[in-house]
Amino acid sequence: MNVVRKEETCKETYTIDDIYALPEGERAELIEGQIYYLATPSRTHQRLLLSLSRKIADYIDIHQGNCEVNIAPFAVFLNNDDINYVEPDISVICDPSKLDEKGCHGAPDWIIEIVSPGSKQMDYYKKLLKYGTAGVREYWIVDFEKNRITVYDFQRDSLEEYAFSDKVKAGIYEDFEIDFSEINIK
């Protein structure tokens, strides 16, 4: 009689309940049931986050727009399921019906991720795929170490790359651009 040992071939699947059960102060994201822990962002990361979110919010306010800017930590339930939960650095949501006190239920219109040393794989690969398939209209990857802003316009199926000396046009608005040369992150 042959005995066949069953190898474990599937990983444990986590849910949003596991995210909510994390110890106080610990943050993580959930993509397709897998937990990815978040490190504390650097000072440069935070300065860039504040500057970009302020420029976007000021534009929306001046133009009396109905979109809302939210910065991390802010819950985004991408697929309205219990195995996907992300906290993008910046989320712009133009459909107020997606918002409640817990966060955004569905895909934001525009997401910006600021790359940290520990988030490169997530930002450039896992989140790129997840955001593109979830219905995000536009995704920016801002990488200050590489002096690069990568803009994915999923609606137009286009990809553009810029430097921190460039003006970058936001695809979800006709007349809004961010001049990265004006951003002081030092």
From TrEMBL:
Give the UniProt keywords, A-Z.
Endonuclease, Hydrolase, Nuclease
* Short name of one Pfam family: Uma2
Q: Which InterPro entries match?
A: Nuclease_put_TT1808, Restrct_endonuc-II-like, Uma2
- Specify whether Transport is a keyword of the entry: no
The answer to whether the entry has keyword Nuclease is yes
What's this protein's name?
A: Uma2 family endonuclease
Q: Which GO terms describe its molecular function?
A: endonuclease activity
Source domain of life is: Bacteria
Putative restriction endonuclease domain sequence ranges = 18-164
